[in-house]
Protein 1
Amino acid sequence: MKTDSTILYLVVPCYNEEEVLNKSAQVMKNKMLRLQEAGRIAKASRILFVNDGSRDRTWRIIHELTQQDRLFAGLSFSRNYGHQSAILAGMMTAREKADAVVTIDADLQQDIEALDSFLDCYDRGCDIVYGVRNDRNTDGFFKKATAGMFYGFMHFLGSNTITNHADYRLMSKKALDALSQFHESNLFLRGLIPTLGFQSDIVYFDVKEREAGQSKYTLRKMITLAMDGITSMSVRPLQMITVLGFLVCLVSAGIFVSCIWDWAHGMVVAGWTTTVGTICLTGGVTLLSQGIIGEYIGKIYMESKGRPRYLVDCLIWHGEEETDDTH
């Protein structure tokens, strides 16, 4: 596998990134041109921006970039479908033309200079290369703490999720073809891609400060992503409910035996605290269990509908425009 003939596509999901997009596009272009001049990638390599239903000027900027330089291409959703869908759409579009695809965020907090190391691993025969951040020093205390708990919990559930890997990765065409055979709408790529089983490696990089604008990953979106990851990659929460129910039954049986013993020895007391505590505990466990089961039933409901994971409104290559695509 020789990198001088490798057609590399950068897939860049974008949501309301007008403040940073022009600068990011120039940085990406300069890096791609340097890689071409060094013979690392082919001249046919491209940068594919995926507009995830932005409400600002993001798509207009992408359109202008594609008209100015053939290095750029653009794909736009009919509405906002989410970060994971944007990444998947970009990869599935690029795999038709590329030998390898790298996904990277538009704010370029992920170090683009790590592309050299990605290509080194690809040249050694790796079909998947994971970008893993060296540390989380740029995150606040809350995000750092919750991220650690999330990855720890995912590992406890048996998921192969790679700690501190956030969708900065390289995938070969072979790996992308394999990924295209997965059709679930409950997407969690960080957990799904490690299950493909191809030869892989890890590249560590430093996270930079955001150049402009604000992060679009709100607390609500992070919670949603975490729930999708937990419910799409493991059924262990359902198994935990079974164990918890068994333990509650044992405790309840013990309390029942204790009550019979007290009655038989004439030591019956009002037991208000014990009664209320038991009812509250049982009720809380029941509601929590129903909530977890409900999450899984909701995912089954959405999967059974067979709806497309996203709708493409427009796809622009240099001087060409395509519309109406679904997946």
Protein 2
Amino acid sequence: MSNYSDSKFHHDPNTPWFKTFMLIPPKSSVLDIGCSSGNFGKELIDNKKCIVDGVEPYEKDAKLAKQKLRQVFDFNIENEAPSKLLGRYDIINYGDVIEHLINPVEALKNTKKLLKKDGKVIFSIPNMAHISVRLMLLKGNFEYGEAGLLDKTHLHYYDIDEIIRIFNEAGFVIEKLDWVSRDLPVEIIKIELEKMGLISTDKFLDEMKKPVASAYQYIGQAGQSNSHNNPEKLTKVSPRIDLFEKRLLEIRKSYEEEFNNKTVQATQSEIEKVKKYYENSTSWKATSPLRRLTNLFKRPLRKK
């Protein structure tokens, strides 16, 4: 799935090719999942003296990869991996692959079986929370494409929290994290927001410069966790929603109380205005003796 064939990627530090290449130690045994035609693995063999095997389901690409790598296999990592590969690799590379998997957690669990005791997983995953996608969603659009963040073959979308969750659930801990940065000029963000009747604040623009919004892809290394607990299972994501709903209720209650207080104050103010008006009127003054007489009869009789 990842075909790092363009030579311009080899020396550009702001590319997934370069960042992934730099994470893989020399002389490592590597299994490249979705190796495509084998170009990336060939670079590891030639420049880092690595031993590289590949996994590639597409026959045409696999045929080319077999000419460059030690071996190329055709199996689904979401199912049981071949027993002959168990505990064999220092590094397993998922270059733009995880977002294409039906069950990424299961795939990563199977991956653990293929790694040596201290083996690592290297990954590159597109960031769904990129500023370009945020602006698109604000417009009410969601357009798939042939490639990029909204590649029509992507089965799952990820932000950094979701990446951490799936690795933790599969028994990994992310040890190193980097990203390919593709931010948008401030002027473009302002123009796009103004088209929707929105005004960009300095705080918002500062947030959009941070990796959570400017990262186009996350690149990282994950090691195997020693803990038997999986603290970030999907079922434990729900408390975030509960906290959000709780906060909304608190805000709503606060506004209701403020509204009620203001309503009472406004009503009392209107009553005072009406009362003052009638007290100054001729009819109020004319009936004053009668009201005093009526109030006299309302008083309880004194006991002798």
Protein 3
Amino acid sequence: MNAIIIATLVLGAVGIVVGIGLVYIGNKFHVEVDERETEIREVLPGNNCGACGYAGCDAVAAAIVAGEASAAVCPVGGAPVAEKINGIMGTHAELSARKVAFVRCNGSCENTSTKNQYVGIRDCRAVVLAGLNPWDCDFGCIGYGSCAAVCPQNAIHTKDGVAVVDPEKCVGCGLCVKTCPNGLIELIPYGQKTVVRCRNIDKGKDVKAICSVGCIGCRLCTKQCENAAISVDNNLARIDYSLCIDCGKCAEKCPQSTITKA
């Protein structure tokens, strides 16, 4: 009986000592958290998607408070969240214009054909690594939806073999841009209507042989633009969105219907 009492007292004493030690260590290594960091964390979407370039919402909240990131760093939250963060931080940072993802390809099943029968993981990156692009155009959309899989807003779907973005759902996080192995996706200004739906840089005759809507680098588009917003570089038409006024004249003259006005 005495042994039981002694053992109980010893265990109790050890527990007290350990408790005191934990309290001491906790106080010694305690790090004060800026209240603004907590407030910012509460207004962030909580996706922890990493689109902002940080490990997650906790990390980006700390970076904002530390002055290492702007109030508009979260593309998922967009302008509404940025405004709330500005309010918390007492800043008036200029908010960037909204951008959305755009897929530079129109090589659907009707416009091009297949050359390989791919059997394997339904992932665009796996197809590229295997070197077995099922489509004739090596520059076009593979259509296996790797971009859609990483989209936190479910703004991308595949239609007739080509990824399509819903601009109303897209928040311009850029995750799809980083994921596309063919570099087909870019961020363009929200509301931009005139676009080039191609990324093939082969010569015109080679493009026409594999796709009925591919850019052939004919330069007819450049002659229509009064603002010098469109140019042809390396056989491919490109639009400078900062100069484009969406008049659509280039789209009207494009013989391949590569340039479209949505």
Protein 4
Amino acid sequence: MDRRDFLYLGAATLLSSQVGWSAEASPNSKMGIAMTSFMTALQPKDAYQSLELCHSLGAAGVQLFALNGDLPKLKARAEELGMFLEVMVPLPNDSQQDIRAFEKTLQDAKAVGAACLRAASLPTRRYETFATFGEYAEWVKRSDAALDAAVPLLEKYKIRLGLENHKDRTVDELVAVLKRYSSQYLGSCLDFGNNIALLDDPLDVIQKLAPYVVTTHMKDVGVESYGEGFLLSELPLGEGFLDLSSIVSLIRAASPNAHLMLEMITRDPLKVPCLTDKYWAAFPERNGLYLAKTLRLVAEKTDRSKPLPRIGQLPKEEQVRMEQDNVKACMAYAKRRHWA
């Protein structure tokens, strides 16, 4: 066992004792955890460790970064624990090698009994990535080509993929994509807070994407103003301003089989520079009405008694502790409301 394994297993054991789960206990939960909740500090080395970590927190399942390690062992352990698996996958580019790699991931996902897949067309953020609308339009062509290659394979292997609203498309743009393909195997990984950064109303996003939901990134968020726009930050469930009860009810009514997957990212607040020229370059269809509504939302929802948390200057050990505490707090909050 190397030092990384030792530290990881020690942290997982500590978590297990703190939340009251024995090594073999059934979580008796409905909610899973997306491994993006641990990308700041504690990072398991493979899918098996990710499964064990989420089990120690009482999760019903895990959305894995990737299918790696001993896959038969992973499948057997998930079945033993009664946990479901979801898998994050990159969409293929137009090369045959990349398409074959995507197909191999689908084969592996079927082999381990994965419930569904999650993908993001753009791993970055639209307003940070594109300096002109022309650059964005070229990306749209590449993204469409990736989906053109992916959807027939999803249908061949009969496995559903949720395309995340990942600060790339406005909600109306994403709905148009899903309608265009009109495939039962392509839907949404509905992130509760991302599209605030694109000046979309958060409840409008839920209402429009709820019928397409395959899986979710469940979160709460807070906001603050800053000189070039506003700050957006994930917060433990119940500490932000999202109407989580209404959101969960809408999703369960429209897509009752979709999993609630916690995504609690512990990090410094994200800057949304919506008062700069560069921000607007890739948004020709947005206008002042969207900006005014969002800035009013920010003004109304800013908690001036409690600034958004910052962790960047903290020691690594403190970041790990905060990350663990935030996830545990979210799981406890969800359980009290019978979401988990």
